[in-house]
Specification:
Length: 292
């Protein structure tokens, strides 16, 4: 391997530390929160806010990988990450994550405003200390409670514009919060052996597959009901209402199929659909606001 190849590999490893696939959804929901806010923001300041959300999300992911490198090595889904493979040293990952975390919050505070920086710091700290360190290895409710960290980006985006929050961004927070358990539990049903091998008490391992399927359906129903609340409050029109109804019915249908199916592939399909659901639901909010 040449020095150039080694440098390229190292750059890719650092990029993978940021969990770019997770970051993309975090950034998108943050953008939606920013664009839905009724105030105005300079485009460059708005761009700075979105970059800070992205970097803060990546920083939390890097610290998470540093802390979980032992269990990542035991799971098929994560064993090829940079730390289990020895392509990066633990200290490098931790230092990288901490520097990015501090930098993202400091830049958000300096260039945007206090409340955006506050909620960004809260999201990072909650993900690292509450979810990663305290909850994940201790309770099957790790995903439920820990989901609060991933639900904060719309609030951060809104606060970047308004220097505060109101009811709508917290409804968006609630939508992501309720979306998180069926999203991750669907994957856990598909690959329970990974979590069992790593001794992570995910709900399918602790409570059983059938109980998890019931919980997926209950959370999906609650999610779909909450998605209609902005229509009742007058935030969106029939455009968003029609799209959210269609997306929600498909989600409920997928959850019902998982409940009564013995095929793990149905859980995997629900996992992938849940990603599309959240992306399309938040896109519908923007479309509704642009048209009307």
């Amino acid at each position: 391997m040449t020095l150039q190849d080694k440098s390229a590999s190292s750059a890719e490893d650092y990029w993978n530390l940021l969990k770019p696939r997770v970051m993309s959804l975090v950034v998108f929901t943050g953008i939606v929160g920013l664009l839905l806010a009724p105030g105005s923001i300079h485009p460059l300041i708005g761009l700075a806010a979105i970059l800070c959300i992205a970097v803060g999300s990546g920083a939390a992911g890097a610290i998470n990988m540093w802390y979980e490198r032992d269990i990542d090595a035991l799971m098929d889904r994560t064993k090829d990450r940079p730390l289990p493979q020895g392509r990066l040293q633990p200290g490098e990952a931790l230092g990288f994550g901490v520097i990015l975390a501090l930098g993202s919050v400091l830049v958000m505070y300096t260039l945007v405003n206090f409340w955006a920086a506050f909620y960004l710091a809260l999201a990072i700290l909650f993900y690292v200390f509450v979810y990663t360190i305290f909850l994940k290895r201790r309770t099957p409710q790790n995903i439920v409670i820990g989901g609060a960290a991933g639900a904060l980006p719309p609030v951060i985006g809104w606060a970047a514009v308004m220097n505060g929050t109101s009811l709508l961004p917290w409804i968006l927070f609630g939508i992501i919060f309720l979306w998180t358990p069926p999203h991750f539990w669907a994957l856990a049903i598909y690959r329970p052996e990974d979590y069992k091998r790593a001794n992570v008490p995910m709900l399918p391992i602790v409570g059983g597959i059938e109980s998890t399927k019931n919980q997926i359906l209950l959370y999906t129903l609650a999610l779909v009901l909450l998605s209609f609340l902005p229509i009742y409050l007058g935030n969106f029109s029939w455009i968003y209402g029609g799209i959210s109804l269609g997306l929600g019915l498909v989600f409920i249908g997928g959850a019902l199929k998982v409940k009564y199916s013995s095929m793990p592939s149905d859980s995997l399909r629900l996992f992938f659909y849940s990603i599309a659901y959240l992306f399309l639901l938040f896109t519908a909010m923007l479309v509704d606001r642009i048209i009307l």
